[in-house]
UniProtKB/TrEMBL annotation:
Required co-factors: heme
Annotated keywords: Heme, Iron, Metal-binding, Monooxygenase, Oxidoreductase
Entry similarity comment: Belongs to the cytochrome P450 family.
Record PROSITE patterns: CYTOCHROME_P450
UniProt cross-references to InterPro entries, sorted A to Z: CYP11_CYP27_families, Cyt_P450, Cyt_P450_CS, Cyt_P450_E_grp-I, Cyt_P450_sf
Lineage: Eukaryota, Metazoa, Ecdysozoa, Arthropoda, Chelicerata
Name the UniProt record assigns to this protein: CYP315A1
Residue positions binding heme: 599
Source organism: Tetranychus cinnabarinus (Carmine spider mite)
A Pfam family that the UniProt record links to this protein: p450
GO MF annotations, alphabetized: heme binding; iron ion binding; monooxygenase activity; oxidoreductase activity, acting on paired donors, with incorporation or reduction of molecular oxygen
Length: 654
């Protein structure tokens, strides 16, 4: 169908095919049934006269309420809702189905509320214009601060194709930039600074061409989307096995080396099976809670280490020194923390105590691993424009560097994971085994598969958490008034110099606001990709199934349409209190993605960051160590253009 709809002559072929279908008795019967059902829906909707409001206590004890109501009339009957699984993402499944009574999406609104944010979706935003899109999911929304997804799932939705597809504008009519033979638009992108500035390039394309446009970058044509209701529509049509794009270089690498990979590289039922197992571990608050004390201990060691680093690095005036290796330090922190959760053991790359030889060796290994991961991201970003297949076939230097870094990173991660899996198995009595045991208990999982899943978890976790935190510290150093506000809030909860514990985190609304605000302005993944298995209409254009879609998070996160004073760092915009009940359009900032394929490490990352940020502010006051502002350089993820330095001053010394 994709091929047909793109050919001019194909129109006639489609007409013939449609005529044959129309002539078919089965098809006619289905069509009649559908119309009858729609008519019944319409009739029932007229009889509506009540309201639905459901409240759900999430496992984290955060109050999450989902309210579905009509702007012009009310929902007919009370609906029984129950969380379908003990862990999030939780589905609220209704047995009696209000969707049977909804015929005009513009009449409805959905509100999700937690103790932090209220998000309201009205009409099309909620329903993505197409209630009968073939998805069983009628409305989906993220519940912001609890880091979970609340979803309303309605049964009995007829599996129909989006009804307005044929009347929408053809795909080819979608705005696209002027391109030249052979080089396409590459020269313009080069003028922006190449793949390292793809986010700014696409941002300017959105300004020129609107919230949806298509462009062939390198080998692949992609539709870029920067509109919150379109984003929501994409997610609500992602189906049971959401599909995202894996960089071509990685696919080729896996193909030629025969290496099998983890969750990010899986698809279909294999992905679903493993993802469900991972959700039970990584998104379950009670399980994360078991490891928060270890996360906290790692932070203690990190801060002590930084304290001695800056103490030994004072300037000639005796001013506290700079922390110049922030990126590396944060990498170590993030890997060390994850290690305590997965293996129940410390990696040893943060503290500087007894067995120095062993520690130093480990630290070197981690450092090498970190360098390889960074190299990997740099080289695969370069191959966004250059077909990776070509680079591989001609064994270009970029490909060689990519291969070398990938081999090295996977080898290092693998040997570390193997060593720890073995240690945990050989000596089950010795201390905690981390979540390894739970992961091993998954059905039909063998050690080999587990190792590759864990290796990829480390790859996914280290860079993302450390860079998000690095940007947060950078923004806080440039906006010191927030350091003071946070200190005030932390002290009001734990007292002066009190010890921060897990139960305090929920009160640190401003710290949570800092994390959200940082990721709004500096989304670690500036684009999220999807390929849908069905045709949909976006922005009035036909989008055939399997089209590559890229959600431009960088653009929506800085769009004045969604954020007042969008370019400013204002963590309090996320804090919901009596004086601030503004509704946030959460689909305009989705740094962890949304729905069933969103980031599985979200809660872990958030808890780790909340500890680090609240505690660094208790201990230090910090200033920017760089004279200039620091821009973004994409290495697949959003990284600083030049190293960020911080000047840390111990509060106790002030
Ligand atoms: C601030 C930190 C982080 C950010 C901003 C982040 C962001 C993301 C994003 C945007 C995605 C893609 C979502 C989508 O396609 O809809 C993703 C996927 C993923 N993330 Fe994270 N992530 C972070 C931390 C972590 C951590 C700590 C872990 C591991 C514990 C992790 C493991 C993964 C995995 C395994 C996937 C693939 C999920 C799947 O395909 O089902 N991430 N992350």
């Amino acid at each position: 169908m994709v091929w047909l709809s793109r050919q001019p002559r194909a129109f006639y072929v489609q007409v013939i095919i449609l005529s044959v279908f129309l002539a078919s008795p089965t098809f006619r019967k289905q069509l009649t049934q559908t119309w009858c059902k729609l008519a019944q829906i319409h009739r029932t909707s007229k009889a509506c006269d009540q309201k639905l409001s459901t409240t759900l206590l999430s496992p984290s004890k955060a109050l999450v309420s989902l309210k579905l109501s009509s702007t012009s009339r009310a929902i007919p009957s009370t609906i029984q809702t129950k969380p379908s699984s003990p862990v999030f993402p939780t589905e609220l499944v209704t047995d009696s189905c209000p969707v049977n009574r909804i015929n005009d999406p513009s009449e409805w609104q959905l509100e999700t509320t937690d103790d932090f944010t209220t998000t309201r979706y009205v009409g099309d935003e909620m329903q993505s214009q197409c209630p009968f899109s073939g998805s069983k999911q009628f409305a989906q929304s993220s519940v912001n601060n609890s880091g979970m997804d609340g979803r309303l799932v309605y049964k009995d939705i007829p599996q129909l194709r989006c009804p307005n597809y044929s009347s929408a504008q053809p795909f080819e009519e979608m705005p696209t930039p002027k391109s030249y033979p052979v080089v396409g638009t590459t020269l313009t992108l080069m003028a922006f600074g190449g793949a390292a500035h793809l986010h700014e390039y696409c941002d300017s394309r959105h300004k020129e061409l609107g919230p949806i446009y298509r462009e062939k970058l390198g080998p692949t044509e992609c539709v870029f989307i920067a509109d919150s209701s379109m984003v929501q529509k994409v997610y609500s049509n992602e189906g049971r096995f959401p599909n995202h794009m894996v960089p071509e270089a990685w696919t080729i690498y896996n193909e030629i080396t025969g290496v099998k990979r983890g969750l990010f590289f899986m698809d279909g039922p294999e992905w679903e099976r493993r993802r469900k197992g991972m959700n039970k571990v990584f998104l379950a608050q009670p399980i994360i809670s078991e490891y928060t004390e270890s996360f906290n201990e790692v932070v203690t060691d990190v801060l002590n280490k930084w304290s001695s680093l800056v103490e030994s690095n004072k300037d000639e005036n005796g001013r506290s020194g700079l922390l110049t290796q922030l990126e590396r330090e944060l990498y170590n922190w993030s890997i060390e923390s994850l290690s305590t959760m997965i293996f129940g053991r410390r990696l040893g790359c943060v503290e500087t105590s007894h067995d120095l030889r062993y520690k130093t060796h480990k630290m070197d290994q981690v450092h090498l691993f970190v360098q390889c991961v960074q190299q990997l991201f740099v080289e695969s970003a370069k191959m966004t424009l250059l077909p990776a297949r070509l680079a591989q076939r001609f064994n270009l230097p970029v490909w060689q560097r990519f291969m070398e870094a990938a081999d090295q990173a996977l080898r290092l991660a693998r040997s570390y994971v193997e060593e720890n899996v073995k240690a945990a198995q050989d000596d089950p009595e010795n201390g905690s085994r981390g979540v390894l045991e739970m992961l091993l208990a998954q059905p039909q999982i063998d050690q080999e598969e587990l190792i590759r899943i864990i290796v990829d978890l480390f790859l996914a976790a280290a860079d993302t958490t450390s860079h998000a935190t690095q940007w947060a510290l950078y923004l806080l150093s440039k906006n010191p008034e927030y350091q003071e506000k946070i200190l005030k809030q932390v002290e009001s909860v734990v007292g002066k110099n009190g010890t921060v514990r897990e139960e305090h985190l929920k009160h640190f609304t401003l710290v949570k606001g800092v994390i959200k605000e940082t990721l709004r302005l500096y989304p670690v993944a500036p684009f999220i990709s999807r390929k849908l298995d069905r045709d949909i209409v976006l922005g009035g254009y036909q989008i055939p199934a399997n089209t590559l879609l890229a959600i431009s998070l960088y653009t929506t996160g800085r769009d004045e349409k969604y954020w007042t004073d969008a370019k400013s760092f204002k963590p309090e915009r996320w804090v919901r209190e009596e004086s601030n009940k503004k509704i946030i359009n959460s689909h305009a900032s989705l740094p962890f993605g949304l729905g069933i394929r969103s980031c599985v490490g979200r809660r872990v990352a958030e808890v780790q960051m909340q500890f680090l940020l609240s505690r660094i502010i208790q201990k230090f006051y910090f200033e920017p160590g760089n004279k200039e502002d620091i821009g973004i350089k994409l290495r697949m993820i959003t990284t600083p253009e030049s190293p960020i330095h911080l000047r840390l001053v111990e509060r106790s010394a002030v």
